[in-house]
Amino acid sequence: MSLSAAVANGAAAYRYDTIQPVARLRFCGLRRKAHRLHSPRYSRHLVAARRSVVVAATAGNGAAASGTFDYDLVIIGAGVGGHGAALHAVEKGLKTAIIEGDVVGGTCVNRGCVPSKALLAVSGRMRELQDEHHMKSLGLQVSSPGYDRQVVADHANNLASKIRSNLTNSMKALGVDILTGIGTIVGKQKVRYGKVGFPDNEITARNIIIATGSVPFVPKGIEIDGKTVFTSDHALKLESVPEWIAIVGSGYIGLEFSDVYTALGSEVTFVEALDQLMPGFDPEIAKLAQRILISPRKIDYHTGVFASKITPAKDGKPVLIELIDAKTKEHKETLEVDAALIATGRAPFTKGLGLENINVVTQQGFVPVDERMQVMDATGNVVPNLYCIGDANGKLMLAHAASAQGISVVEQISGRDNILNHLSIPAACFTHPEISMVGLTEPQAREKADKEGFEISVVKTSFKANTKALAENEGDGLAKMIYRPDTGEILGVHILGLHAADLIHEASNAIALGTHVQDIKFAVHAHPTLSEVLDELFKAAKVNTAGSHSMNEPVAV
């Protein structure tokens, strides 16, 4: 989930694994308040188009597609986005099919979110057991913790298999037709699919959703052998734990793998093209994260450099990484390491979709869409009945964003206009401790405020003041909120600390529902819980009530 020309030239390639591509630091610019998103103020012709869809009011997959189509909805790609759309479509009574050329679950389940969390669960346990001071402070004694690499790898693989089976069974149980093969759009509302060596099949659909996801992005000059120089796809198999590994890119992917490798005994060197580590994060959170997640561990780093050439280890020689200055392109030095993980993010998987058959031209590989995920053709017009969700459209490269976009599309084709507020979608980095965020960073919020002419305020609270965190001896952490003091609108929330990935949802839901600070500060939180970190954060905000109103107070009409 378009990128600037710099990405195509390699100048910004290392930023693919941040929340959004470099050119979309404004989270695709959707700034409607959530409580206005379902407003009926859409065009009459759109209403008529939506209402023309015949929705079968039957349980399970629709008994028959409406009109003369084979299906009401065909989804190309059975990742998390396609799966979410398929289940919601069945709930709406639409006869639905999903086409998958590889395995159900896509990147997230098979080569991303799911197996990586299994490895991170192991690294978290190891890190805790290795912290002798922490154990002793709790009165615990642990001697020489160790691990079995193959069992760790099996844990990740088994988890992926289980979740993949669950997704497949859930669709089958609801009557979704799972069609095996590569899907290609051959014309308006027509899709061809099939496997190599077998005859192709052609089906028609009232609506089509493209949900083909992404693949690892490998910059030019880097030779992948899958053993000593590899992407996250290979790393998740954990076929080895190198003594010294270079990680190219310090975004989400690189940061999480640094957590895994250092916990298992590796030394890590980051290679980052930009001038600071973790450039996609709020700067204050990134600075604190560097102090907690980088400095105390066996990690060093090179910033402001490109890995212009990486050669795999062979004939007894180590992996060679040639570094050049990101600005001058002059040679800086050559690193010799045992392995290199290329964590430069992901690129859209959109080749072979047949987009040329419907006059659609990709932008840096991404399928152009409007705010309703409707595909746009080369002339800038909407292609009727064709949508694209997830990594393939470039809006927000997160599995749950893909699912949310798919559900939004199904709402539209079922007759309800729906525009997803991407600023309300949270993101998380599952390091130890975790990092999470939703909305704008402080620099982004200040830029918006300067442009639109309003003030912003920032409040913070520390995990050191939280009883539950102190009981766990996990007081390192910070929660930060950026908001408008004139209205109480929440612009962004950022958390680094214990279970930050779970805590962020109260803030993301507040943004999605249009709940302002002056209202949410009255919410009651159980004591003692980590949720009180957010409670204290909301209570610390000061809102000019003369210029705003509370949802709990009567409003003059």
TrEMBL record:
Q: What class of enzyme is it?
A: oxidoreductase
Protein's organism = Zea mays
Identify this protein by name: dihydrolipoyl dehydrogenase
| Residues binding NAD(+) | 249-256, 272, 345
Q: Which UniProt keywords apply?
A: Chloroplast, Disulfide bond, FAD, Flavoprotein, NAD, Nucleotide-binding, Oxidoreductase, Plastid, Redox-active center, Transit peptide
What's the name of its gene?
LOC100381818
Molecular function GO terms recorded: dihydrolipoyl dehydrogenase (NADH) activity; flavin adenine dinucleotide binding
What high-level taxonomic lineage is stated for the organism? Eukaryota, Viridiplantae, Streptophyta, Embryophyta, Tracheophyta
Q: Which GO terms describe its cellular component?
A: chloroplast stroma; mitochondrion; oxoglutarate dehydrogenase complex
* Cystine connections: 108-113
Enumerate the SUPFAM superfamilies for this protein: FAD/NAD(P)-binding domain (SSF51905), FAD/NAD-linked reductases, dimerisation (C-terminal) domain (SSF55424)
